[in-house]
Design a protein that fits this description.
With 284 residues, the protein is of the alpha/beta class. The protein has twelve helices and eight strands. It is elongated, with a radius of gyration of 23 Å. Bound molecules: 3-methyl-2-oxobutanoic acid.
């Protein structure tokens, strides 16, 4: 595969200007980052969804900055060229603007991120503005925001009603004015996504389960490759069922070890006869 150029903010905006969709996936580990790099993914999000997909929690709330930094470092090692976004975990930015800037700075300094993402609308615009003023590119996240799942009443579509949709449009405007380079719309109706995309002037819109009208698409890697055992959300398409492949391989491994058909001579290492004879003498 030819050497890939590093993705930059200007190269992302050029894609938008050229009307070419931006590709984005979540990623949490080194080997997967390597595969995504080879596939030419534009933007990688190390989402705090790793709490559910990688650590088995019921929600994203227990995820810490230390969890995020460790996984983001691994992803950067596997993907030196994608535009890498660290997801600010629960309570790493909500308490104050200063907390938000400090933790965003950790993503940049300790994990070589290109940008960070945070959830929330107008109420988080001052955090967004502070981070951007500190020279850190920042992405917003509206619609279904998993850190507020309790307040939202569960993992469900947001903005189906006119009042709520109007509020999401105002929130998108606040984030754009605060300097967001992009906004993720998660699980809002496609018509609402279209209205927000048409109104965005200085930022671009990424859709997760919000239709085709945005300038780019995001999926959770584990949903797209059959790797999350608890459920498959409707918005996700399974592009390859890696989970099933691994499950079949594991059953085969257990069978072959149990039947002693693995390992075979090509899987172990021999010892020259004379060395072996000498060893036996040493043991006598
Ligand atoms: O944590 C994450 O992966 C996210 C997605 C749900 C967008 O924020």
């Amino acid at each position: 595969m030819p050497e890939r150029k590093r993705v930059t903010l200007p190269s992302l905006f050029k894609k938008v200007a050229d009307n070419q969709p931006i590709t984005m996936l979540t990623c949490y580990d080194y080997p997967t980052a390597h595969f995504q790099e080879q596939a030419g993914i534009d933007m990688i999000l190390v989402g705090d969804s790793l709490g559910m997909t990688m650590l088995g929690y019921e929600s994203t709330l227990p995820v810490t900055m230390e969890d995020m930094i460790r996984h983001t470092q691994a992803v950067r090692r596997g993907s030196p060229n994608a535009w890498l976004i660290g997801d600010m975990p629960y309570m790493s930015y909500q308490p104050s603007v200063e907390t938000a800037i400090r933790n965003a700075g950790r993503f940049m300094a300790e994990a070589s991120c290109d940008a960070i993402k945070l959830e929330g609308g107008a109420e988080m615009a001052d955090r967004m503005a502070g981070i951007v003023r500190a020279g850190i590119p920042a992405m917003g996240h509206l619609g279904l925001t998993p850190q507020s799942v309790s307040a939202l009443g569960g993992f469900r579509v947001q903005g189906k009603g006119a009042q709520q949709a109007w509020k999401i449009i105002q929130d998108a405007r606040s984030l754009e004015e605060a300097g967001a380079f992009a906004i993720l719309l998660e699980m809002v109706p496609d018509r609402l996504c279209k209205l927000i995309t048409e109104r965005a002037k200085t930022c671009f819109i990424i859709s997760l389960g919000s239709g085709l009208h945005a300038q780019g698409q995001l999926l959770i890697y584990h949903d797209a490759f059959g790797l999350y055992p608890r459920f498959k959300p409707r918005m996700a398409k399974v592009f390859a069922n890696a989970g099933q492949l691994i499950q079949d391989g594991l059953v085969e491994y257990v069978k072959e070890v149990t039947e002693r058909t693995f390992p075979r001579p090509e899987n172990w290492f021999g010892m020259p006869d004379e060395e072996y004879e000498e060893l036996l003498k040493l043991l006598d």
